[in-house]
Amino acid sequence: MKKACVIGYPIAHSRSPLIHNHWLNTYGIKGIYEKCPVEPEKLGEFLRNLATNGYVGCNVTIPHKETAINFVQNIDSIVTKTGSLNTIYTENNTIKATSTDGEGFYQNLVTSLAGLNLNGKNVLILGAGGSARAVIERLLRAGVANIHIINRTQARSEELALLFGPKVIASLPLNLPSLMQTMDLLINTTSQGMQGQPELEIDLTPLPATAVVADLIYVPLKTKLLLAAEARGLKAVGGLGMLLHQAVVGFEKWFGVKPVVTDELYRLIARDIDPSFR
Ligand SMILES: NC(=O)c1ccc[n+]([C@@H]2O[C@H](COP(=O)([O-])OP(=O)(O)OC[C@H]3O[C@@H](n4cnc5c(N)ncnc54)[C@H](OP(=O)(O)O)[C@@H]3O)[C@@H](O)[C@H]2O)c1
């Protein structure tokens, strides 16, 4: 029986076991996906013993996404560029790692909005944290024309502009209304709007009528930003689909089957987040 897990500290609220165990059932694979609380000082020991303890790999979440790099033999170009990982797997007796958040965001966007072509598009990203890095890395590979970043801490958006090169521009919050006029895609990667966090208050009026608004947050399932986008008649994409799509890569590496993100899976996790979801 193949065994995988998610490690973090704390880890109680992770939805990854629900997702992966649903797929294991769906595809009739003899396997199990567990939740493992791993304290920061025990991370090295846990990863060194991963295979010995019977795991084919693991997901990695807060607070280990950056520090885990020190304990992996082989990281891919996404991890090198973004400085964080979320998926560890073994191949030819080597511990390897990738980061699937960017791919999850991209796949969710293009499957939610059939026919969407990001080539040459103007993108505005709010936030400059770990998830912004992952999204920027993937959008640049998708061929977007440029990415403006607006963040509370200006130094962090400038750091990302330096890291990713001339297509990525650190912009000032006061320029938000004028910037919006030419944007095809606006993405919230901040934790503003998440349950228990301050709301994100933005007037979306300047966005073109064809613009898409995406939010990485999935608790609540539909943030005020997305409700405001829909009220303006814009296409709105939430964060739960990203969570489901980012899990595809790990599952395939560990269990050998590329799983499909179905409406059934979406409803299962949505109801876990919000029991009133229909
Ligand atoms: N759907 C998914 O699969 C998925 C995956 C990853 C993350 N997420 C979600 O994405 C969000 C960000 O995650 P992350 O890993 O990027 O976090 P992070 O690295 O901690 O970055 C947080 C970002 O939010 C900004 N921020 C936080 N509080 C703010 C406030 N009150 N006002 C203005 N800006 C504020 C920070 O600005 P400063 O730089 O100024 O501190 C920073 O840019 C979280 O809600 C997380 O749940 C979703």
Question: What's the quick description here?
Answer:
By secondary structure, the protein is an alpha/beta fold.
Description:
With 278 residues, this protein is an alpha/beta fold. It folds into 2 domains: 2-99 and 243-273, Rossmann fold (3-Layer(aba) Sandwich); 102-238, NAD(P)-binding Rossmann-like Domain (Rossmann fold), CATH 3.40.50. The protein is 35% helix and 20% strand. It is built from 10 helices and 12 strands. The protein has helices at residues 16-26, 43-48, 77-82, 101-112, 130-141, 154-164, 176-180, 224-231, 240-255, 263-273, and strands at 2-8, 31-37, 55-60, 74-75, 87-91, 94-98, 122-126, 146-150, 168-170, 185-188, 212-215, 235-237. The strands form 2 sheets. The protein has a 6-stranded mixed beta sheet with strand order 2-1-3-5-6-4. Strands 9-8-7-10-11-12 form a 6-stranded parallel beta sheet, with helices on both faces. β11, α8 and β12 (235-237) form a beta-alpha-beta unit. α1 (16-26) packs across α9 (240-255), α4 packs across α5 and α4 (101-112) packs across α9 (240-255). The longest helix has 16 residues, at 240-255. The protein is globular, with a radius of gyration of 19 Å. The structure holds NADP nicotinamide-adenine-dinucleotide phosphate (NAP). The site of NADP nicotinamide-adenine-dinucleotide phosphate (NAP) has 25 residues, from α4, α5 and α9.
